[in-house]
Design goal:
alpha+beta, 7-stranded antiparallel sheet, 7 helices, globular
Length: 331
Amino acid sequence: MTVRKVATVQKTRKQTEGGGFIVRRPNIPPERFDPILLLDHMGPATYGPKEAVGAPDHPHRGQETITYILKGQMQHLDSHGHAGTLNPGDVQWMTAGAGVVHSEMPGDEIFEKGGKVEGFQMWVNLPKEKKMTKPRYQELKSTEIPSSKSDDGQITVKVLAGKFKDTTAHIDTVTPIVYYDVFGEKSGKVSFDPAVKRLFVYIYRGRSQVCGRDMEEGEIAVLESEEGDVEVISANEEFGCLVFGGDPLNQPVAWVGPFVMTTQEEIRQAMIDYQTGILGSIPGSEERYEQTRIANQNGPSTSFAANKAGCMGPTLRMKQTVVHDFLYRSD
């Protein structure tokens, strides 16, 4: 089959998110990223005792958030009573749907003793008719995620969503979505057809050639063709990349912070529902905010004072924002 072409390659940019952690994020226009909303590469970061930060209690509505951990540990709590712990190699696929308040914090051992943390969070848009669906969680341990090898045996393909040749993911997606972790330590080649129209390749470790284009760590490729193979050729060194995408929804996007709907009126209603408690709450929220404050005071890379001044990510900043500006601004 024909290999897809690379339309553009861009360097991801660093910014502060959540409670003060640094992420790498591409700047791709929503209409070109559709159905993907964002991809954050969290870390890699090495924290000392009581320095690790996360994203304490914040809401979501209208999208799916997918968290995939490479190093460290993350604890999840939400307003529907769900709790879970993600360890290296684990994935959580959360369909926020009609709305949920959740918390994503470093594991207790990471916070108390310090350690390395790295992972990814991707947001996927939901079709208009599925925006208010019941929230759903799919969590898989690393050992439960199927994987396969390239024909030369040098590259591993971990299938988080979609299908790789005869290997099918265990995650059930609302719309056609593919998500692969492709990695290895020696020179190798893998070529496969993910069978979706929009595809992106993000290099998170080392160097590789993607569909004939040389790429390095921190770069993302937007593929041009709507059909054909993705070809990845690794250099003779440790490398890793994410291959992900889906079929475009081709619908309006109204997006404020953690709410992604199709109209500004729906955004206003989401803000009202959050502020009036309809999305629920999680016991212990003040303790998690206090933990975040302590971590930002101790951490070398960011400060809580800087976050309060405007560097804080949009989900956590909502805790301190006067909602009137969102509710009553003109469309």
